[in-house]
Amino acid sequence: MSFKLKEFYFLEKFQVQYYEAQLSSAKDEYYLKAFAKMVKIESGHADYFAQKMAEIKVENPKITTSLFKMAGRILGESVEITGADNTCKLGVALEKKAIEMYQEFIMKAWADEDLRDNLMEFMLDEEFHALWMENYINNM
Ligand SMILES: [Fe+2]
Ligand SMILES: [Fe+2]
């Protein structure tokens, strides 16, 4: 359990960092709003896992790896990010990976109704994020 919580804390912290990085590079106001909203939601996810770790007295892992290394670690390949199009493409890949991870965790956590409920909520958020970015790419 403590391994799972760490893994998801790491995943969510990375998403926060990834979307936050877009806030300084993008100019489109609506796009910025979307990313600011995603930062807020991903922060909420990360906070939940941090709190769960605190409950079982597990220390929050420190995140020191660079953004690109983290993306590579999550997606299993080296990645480069330039422009809104690529940002969204990588964002979609990250969200899809997150959705896969949530599906697996939900099955494992099924007996814990409270945890299951939260994981489903978060997975829905990730699905919305992926759909928004996919839609953004298609309308560029
Ligand atoms: Fe998330
Ligand atoms: Fe997300």
Tell me, what is the CATH class?
A: Mainly Alpha
Note the overall shape: globular
Averaging pLDDT over every residue, what do you get?
89
What bound compounds does this protein have? Answer: fe (ii) ion
Tell me about the biggest sheet?
none
Distance between the termini: 42 Å
The CATH topology comes to: Ferritin
Report the strand count.
0
Classification by helices and strands: mainly alpha
Q: What is the CATH architecture term? A: Up-down Bundle
Helical fraction: over 70%
The CATH superfamily name is Ferritin, core subunit, four-helix bundle
Residue stretches low in confidence (pLDDT < 50, at least 5 long) are none
Over the alpha carbons, how many angstroms does the gyration radius reach?
A: 15 Å
Q: Given the structure, what is the number of helices? A: 5
Strand percent estimate: under 5%
Total tally of structural domains: 1
Order of helices and strands: HHHHH
Describe this structure in words.
It is a single chain. By secondary structure, this protein is an all-alpha fold. It has 5 helices and no strands. Helix 1 (2-25) runs antiparallel to helix 4 (83-108). The protein is globular, with a radius of gyration of 15 Å. The chain has a single domain (2-138), classed as Ferritin, core subunit, four-helix bundle (Ferritin, Up-down Bundle). 80% of the residues lie in helices and 0% in strands. Bound molecules: fe (ii) ion (2 copies). One fe (ii) ion binds at residues 15, 38, 42, 95, 125-126, 129.
